[in-house]
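Subgroup meeting minutes
Present: P.N., E.W., G.H.
Scribe: E.W.

1. P.N. recapped why we're keeping a running log of single-chain structure predictions: easier to compare across weeks, and new members can see raw inputs and outputs side by side.
2. G.H. added today's entry (173 aa).
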Amino acid sequence: MRIIVSGPLHAGKTTRVRALVEALAARAVPLAGYLSPAVRSDDGIAGYDLEAIGTGERAPLLRRAVGERGGAPELTVGSFRFVAAGLERARDIVRRSGPGDFLVVDEVGPAELEGRGVWPALGPLLEDPGRSVLLVVRASLADAFRRRLGGRPALVRTDDADFEKRALAEIAR
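Output recorded in log:
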């Protein structure tokens, strides 16, 4: 099962998915994966942390690349750069997820469409039709990820008033 959760940029996707993860945990669904809550500063969003589902362990994942030049291209995306240790932790969480786990990856974006970011760990796992995976994707990239995944993965939008109900129904299929 493949589910894409999509919503506008900076519109609460992680908050909505966190509530969904809590609802799944209350139903004793075996979970793996991570959320990517925003890290805010006086200037707005300074980056995103990786927050492991189940343990709550946090690590820096993305930070603004302000004033940086000459950084490793494989670690940059837009105005952000991946923090190498956080990116490796994200890949490790994905790799360690088991076949019976419902894997949540918040979020995949332009880097993953290019085969970078968490994709080296996630891509091979997505080839297993028996794996259950929920990918959080900004709305502008949802169609590109649906094409990449093939098989018409379910699409649930976080701005849908019945988001949690619809997502739970897709997961129950």
